[in-house]
Design goal:
Elements (H helix, E strand, L loop, with lengths): L6 H11 L3 H52 L2 H49 L5 H10 L1 H11 L2 E5 L5 E8 L4 E6 L6 H11 L1
Antiparallel strand pairs: 1-2, 2-3
Length: 198
């Protein structure tokens, strides 16, 4: 025999080492999103279908009314009524065509949203590394903090997110200064103090 252990035992151990839970969760989220999108699409299609049925009923009603008008009025009135009904018929046909085009557009939009959902699931909520790096590059607060760090100044935020404390390191002198930023002093005062300390 080529194997030291029983193949069934090896297969059980191999199966036990697979971790498919995150994949199941991701597929569940995708299925939920697809279900939501499908429900929204079905709702719009039902609304469009309902509108189309209503327009068809209107057309039928108008056709019946037209028939009554033909029987009860003279030829000139009849011709005018036919023109009016033809205009309404074309409007209804155009509305039906517009609804069909809108349905196709919504189908394309749904496909685009499915593709976007797959891409978001692949990249994560914050996007891929290039998007994160671009966001950090474009963020003025991040840029200011990078400039401060390059000068040897570490800025600390309090619980509210306001930057009110700075640690200044002067590697040439071997000094470290901690500055608490107080709103009663001007920015000019702090900028002078920082440059003198650096």
């Amino acid at each position: 025999m080529l194997l030291d252990e029983d193949p069934a035992t090896l297969i059980r151990h191999t199966i036990g080492n697979f971790n498919i839970h995150p994949d199941k969760v991701a597929i569940g989220r995708i299925n939920e999103s697809l279900s939501t999108l499908q429900q929204a699409r079905d709702l719009r299609i039902r609304e469009a279908d309902s509108a189309l049925k209503k327009l068809s009923r209107n057309l039928h009603t108008l056709s019946a009314h037209h028939s009554e008008t033909v029987l009860s009025h003279n030829g000139a009135d009849h011709a005018a009524r036919i023109v009016e009904l033809d205009t309404q018929k074309f409007r209804i046909a155009k509305a039906a065509s517009d609804l069909e085009i809108e349905g196709e557009r919504l189908e394309h939009e749904l496909e685009g949203l499915k593709c976007r959902l797959r891409q978001i699931d692949l990249d994560g909520v914050e996007g891929d590394e290039a998007m994160k790096a671009k966001r950090e590059t474009d963020d003025p607060t991040v840029l200011k903090l990078k400039v401060f760090r390059s000068l040897g100044i570490d800025v600390e935020a309090d619980n509210t997110g306001a930057f009110n404390k700075a640690t200044i390191r002067n590697t040439r002198k071997g000094d470290v200064h901690v500055v608490n930023v107080d709103p009663k002093f001007s920015r000019f005062f702090y900028s002078n103090y920082l440059w003198q300390t650096i």
